[in-house]
């Protein structure tokens, strides 16, 4: 009891109430006091810190330092920090695929935020699926929230050349497959690619989501790019903790930050970074939690007017640490300001424009280009339509081969990931450099979980001849660190009856990025006949557990691969707003 004889009020949120509210609070206070808290400590704004550290997640390997720094910030501002765990997901330790588990992490995050007496929450994530899962969950729980990312890993060095995960992982593996480098060298480079704890050092999904979260105003200005192991990163963590207390006091809930304008700024920055295709799926899911539907056609129009300004791998040449030294996201937003909603709110309580006015003075550098001297003239991502993808497909045109962006070729079809693995390196496979490699049944339902198998390897016999890129089409995803002329997220997917399931080896396929077209070039009657006589699609039906929930509930890529029942109940229109 405090001096007034009442239990501390800071722990009042989300009481489990069996009819006597004061007794429930009395009980709760008794338990937490078992951890040694004083009434004074408990009578403050309670700031939950979502700790996603895990021995299986090196991308979050600096979690202990970040949690400590966030706590320091919270206490400096007079709040009570309390950390709690949720599921953690690392791309390489999430069998069968991290996308399968993202919604589970989002549910965990949502329900724990709801369940615990937190007045605000600091979401610490980093690896690809974690920030989306946290934003999805926090958006649905709708308490005051602020995102903190773990930060990028350091680059490494291999025989005098800078390397980083995981664009260089793929480049070296491709050279190994082509027998350009030997076993000893591939083993040597394996220990060089990941220079420290932290997230991938290129414009993969983690970097993209960090950048996009800052642009959306849900993370502090300047917080996206400091590498994981730097003093800058730790200071950002402390500042994030400080600000979380303000958010709690002001009751600034997440729906007041992630407005349609803020989400549009995020999409704009996704394009300007030449960021990961995955981020589009994740932003669709986050928007869906807030009641907004992602309008792919308006997004594509935005893409045509948004140049790629950031020179980062895989589309460019630099790494995240270079982006940080060049001024990070504030500098990028400064260059992009004419295309942004400057009146969008941010977690600081001020608008994006107000924050930008206080950003450091621009200085000469070559990682972030001005609007009139872009890396790539229009947006990194393009949305394709056509009979092969009536609900849309996506290509990262900035990371594609310019000569393949307009292409007409013969389909070579793989039924699923196992079929691909069995045949892609077969010396007798009938495949030519101008063919279009088609892989199906790797969509949200089909795999299930939409694995990053869309980065179909070049058949070994062609790789040996020096073929580095071919047009590839699938209903799956690809890693944001990968490059090539790769059409992804074909919707609807084959497993729910999409046209992709009707393609036969030998069929001509037309890809025209200029016309935003992905077309199976066979007569309409023939296509209709195939649809009529096709066997039922190979839709997996797990009998129990999370897998069953997933395949029954997951929606298609344009809706974010979220579970249908997790979307907001109220529809609030489209983002980007039609213009
Ligand atoms: Fe974690 Fe790339 S594997 S960010
Ligand atoms: Mg990735």
TrEMBL record:
The organism's taxonomic lineage, starting at the top: Bacteria, Bacillati, Actinomycetota, Actinomycetes, Kitasatosporales
Molecular-function annotations in GO: lyase activity
Residue span, Dihydroxy-acid/6-phosphogluconate dehydratase N-terminal domain: 44-354
Provenance organism: Streptomyces chisholmiae
Domain Dihydroxy-acid/6-phosphogluconate dehydratase C-terminal: 366-561
InterPro entries: Dihydro-acid_dehy_C, DiOHA_6PGluconate_deHydtase_CS, ILV_EDD_C, ILV_EDD_N, IlvD/EDD_N, Sugar_Degrad_Dehydratases
SUPFAM superfamilies: IlvD/EDD N-terminal domain-like (SSF143975), LeuD/IlvD-like (SSF52016)
Enzyme class: lyase
Signal peptide (UniProt feature, chain positions): none
Record's protein name: IlvD/Edd family dehydratase
Pfam families: ILV_EDD_C, ILVD_EDD_N
The EC number(s) this enzyme carries: 4.2.1.-
Family named by the database record: Belongs to the IlvD/Edd family.
Keywords linked to the UniProt accession: 2Fe-2S, Amino-acid biosynthesis, Branched-chain amino acid biosynthesis, Iron, Iron-sulfur, Lyase, Metal-binding
């Amino acid at each position: 009891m405090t001096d007034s004889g009442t239990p501390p009020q800071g722990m009042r949120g989300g009481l489990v109430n069996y009819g006597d509210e004061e007794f429930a609070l009395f009980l709760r206070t008794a338990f937490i006091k078992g951890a040694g808290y004083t009434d004074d400590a408990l009578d403050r704004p309670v700031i939950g810190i979502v700790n996603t550290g895990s021995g299986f997640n090196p991308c979050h390997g600096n979690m202990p330092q970040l949690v400590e720094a966030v706590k320091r910030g919270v206490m400096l501002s007079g709040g009570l920090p309390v950390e709690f765990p949720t599921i953690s997901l690392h791309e390489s330790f999430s069998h069968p695929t991290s996308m399968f588990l993202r919604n589970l992490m989002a549910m965990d995050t949502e329900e724990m935020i709801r369940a615990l007496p937190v007045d605000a929450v600091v979401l610490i994530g980093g690896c690809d699926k974690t920030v989306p899962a946290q934003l999805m969950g926090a958006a649905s729980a709708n308490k005051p929230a602020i995102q903190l990312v773990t930060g990028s890993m350091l680059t490494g060095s291999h025989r005098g050349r800078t390397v980083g995960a995981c664009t260089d992982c793929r480049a070296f593996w491709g050279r190994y497959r082509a027998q350009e480098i030997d076993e000893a060298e591939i083993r040597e480079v394996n220990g060089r690619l990941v220079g420290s704890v932290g997230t991938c050092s290129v414009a993969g999904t983690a970097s993209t989501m960090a950048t996009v979260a800052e642009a959306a105003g849900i993370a502090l200005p300047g917080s996206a790019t400091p590498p994981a192991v730097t003093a800058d990163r730790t200071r950002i963590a402390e500042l994030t903790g400080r600000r979380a207390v303000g958010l709690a006091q002001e009751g600034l809930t997440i729906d007041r930050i992630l407005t349609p304008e803020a989400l549009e700024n995020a999409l704009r920055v996704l394009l300007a970074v030449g960021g990961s295709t995955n981020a589009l799926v994740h932003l669709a899911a986050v928007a869906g939690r807030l009641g907004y539907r992602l309008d792919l056609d308006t997004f594509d129009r935005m893409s045509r007017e948004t140049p790629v300004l950031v020179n980062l791998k895989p589309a460019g040449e630099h790494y995240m640490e270079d982006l940080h030294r060049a001024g990070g996201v504030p500098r990028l937003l400064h260059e992009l300001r004419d295309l942004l909603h400057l009146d969008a709110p941010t977690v600081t309580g001020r608008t994006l424009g107000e924050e930008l006015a206080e950003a450091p003075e621009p200085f000469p550098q070559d990682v972030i280009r001005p609007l009139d001297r872009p890396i790539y003239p229009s947006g990194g991502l393009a949305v394709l339509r056509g009979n092969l993808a009536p609900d849309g497909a996506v290509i990262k045109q900035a990371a594609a081969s310019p000569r393949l962006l307009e292409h007409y070729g013969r389909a070579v079809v793989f039924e699923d990931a196992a079929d691909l693995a069995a045949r892609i390196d077969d010396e007798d496979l009938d495949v030519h450099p101008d063919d279009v490699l088609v892989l199906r049944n790797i969509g949200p339902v089909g795999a299930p979980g939409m694995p990053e198998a869309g980065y179909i390897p070049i058949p070994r016999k062609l790789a040996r001849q020096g073929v580095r890129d071919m047009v590839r089409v699938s209903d799956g995803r690809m890693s944001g660190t990968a490059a090539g002329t790769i059409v992804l997220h074909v919707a609807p997917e084959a497993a729910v009856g999409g046209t992709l399931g009707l393609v036969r080896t030998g069929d001509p396929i037309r890809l025209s990025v200029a016309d935003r077209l992905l077309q199976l070039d066979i007569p309409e009657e023939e296509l209709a006949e195939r649809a009529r006589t096709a066997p039922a699609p190979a839709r997996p039906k797990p009998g129990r557990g999370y897998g069953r929930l997933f395949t029954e509930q997951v929606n298609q890529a344009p809706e974010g691969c979220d579970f249908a029942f997790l979307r907001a109940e109220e529809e609030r229109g489209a983002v980007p707003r039609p213009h």
